Every structure is written in structure tokens, then in C-alpha cells.
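> forwarded from #structure-qc
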């Protein structure tokens, strides 16, 4: 599995990317690289932003892993691994002083899986309205030792994930990361202004 590098939306031209932090955006299911890129004006100015397109065409957009035969919030971990590895392979070709992640929904699941593959690689990870795969991972033990900073935010009215999915994530985060957890009253499966403000402050503090 490979990323379509021609589809990446960048916040700066190539000549202006060297020796700067990188912030990678990972969109949700059935969406596209332009979706989260619209948040760019509300994010810190110092990192170069790269908004990626998920590698699978599905549901009128793109997906990091198929939902055709996969339970919502509990996919086959091997499928999530495939996308995580594709992102890591692309990152290996980039130059940056540090790299942070911001994922929404499926993209949040990929962001947290990336941490499990490379526990020391990411300065900060933001997982919005998402989850972590339930299968154990070889990187979990190192994550327990490193405890990288993770922001997890969701709306109290988000109907997408069941209690078992959320309970697993709430138990997993404090063991494997240094978490900042925020829940937003009345917010559904989306992002509001207060969450954006909190994300910006988190990224400025850690990336």
C-alpha cells in the first residue's frame, strides 16, 4: 500500500519546508485531503502542514481501512497497520526538525497506530473523535516507557463509537501516553471552535 504523494496538500512550497517542524493531517472515513486542511488557519504557524489522502477509495471518498466487513471502532489491526506503514514510508522521504500528527476518526486510529510503530518519532499526537485498535501491538511496551503526549478530544453527542470502544481507549491512553483528554458538551462527530483552540494550544506546547 502506497500514498498518492501527488494528492498531498501542503501549507508551504517545497523551498520553504526545510528545517521546520512537520504536522501531518489524517482525514476521516470517506473524506479527502482537503477536509482537515481547511483547519490550517486555526493551527500553529511554525509547522509545515501536510494533509494526506488515504490510500483506499471507498464510500465516495477515501479510507485508511475498509469498513465493508470491519466493525466500526474495532477493525482488523493488520489493516490499520498497512496504512500506518504507508505513512511511515512516506515520512522517511521527508526532511523535518520534528513531526506531529493530527487525525480525525479513522485518521485518529491511524495516528495512534503510528505511535505504536514508532513510539519515539512523534513530538505530539492529536486524535479527534477516534479510537485505538484493540489488538495488542509490539510497540506497546515501549510506549508505556516513553508515554508521548497525546490529545484526545470527542463530542459527548458523537454516536459513532460504542461504549466498549470508548472504554478501551480511556483505559489504554493513560498507560501508553501522557494524555490530555477533552470532551465537548453537545458536539457530535465533528470539531468545534473550542476543540480547535485546545488543539492549537496543545500543539504549540508540544511540537
Amino acid at each position: 500500500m502506497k500514498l498518492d504523494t501527488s494528492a498531498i496538500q501542503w501549507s508551504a512550497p517545497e523551498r520553504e519546508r526545510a528545517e521546520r517542524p512537520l504536522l501531518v493531517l489524517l482525514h476521516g472515513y470517506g473524506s479527502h485531503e482537503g477536509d482537515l486542511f481547511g483547519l490550517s488557519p486555526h493551527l500553529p504557524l511554525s509547522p509545515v502542514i501536510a494533509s494526506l489522502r488515504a490510500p483506499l477509495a471507498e464510500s465516495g471518498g477515501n479510507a485508511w481501512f475498509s469498513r465493508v466487513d470491519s466493525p466500526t471502532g474495532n477493525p482488523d489491526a493488520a489493516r490499520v497497520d498497512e496504512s500506518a506503514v504507508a505513512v511511515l514510508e512516506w515520512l522517511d522521504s521527508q526532511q523535518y526538525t520534528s513531526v506531529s500528527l493530527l487525525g480525525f476518526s479513522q485518521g485518529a486510529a491511524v495516528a495512534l497506530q503510528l505511535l505504536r510503530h514508532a513510539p519515539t518519532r512523534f513530538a505530539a499526537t492529536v486524535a479527534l473523535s477516534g479510537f485505538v485498535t484493540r489488538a495488542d501491538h509490539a510497540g506497546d511496551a515501549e510506549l508505556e516507557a516513553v508515554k508521548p503526549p497525546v490529545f484526545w478530544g470527542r463530542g459527548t453527542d458523537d454516536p459513532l463509537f460504542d461504549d466498549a470502544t470508548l472504554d478501551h481507549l480511556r483505559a489504554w491512553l493513560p498507560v501508553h501516553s501522557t494524555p490530555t483528554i477533552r470532551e465537548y458538551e453537545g458536539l457530535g462527530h465533528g470539531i468545534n471552535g473550542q476543540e480547535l483552540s485546545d488543539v492549537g494550544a496543545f500543539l504549540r506546547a508540544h511540537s
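QC bot note: The chain has one domain: 5-206. The CA atoms of residues 74 and 132 lie 8 Å apart.
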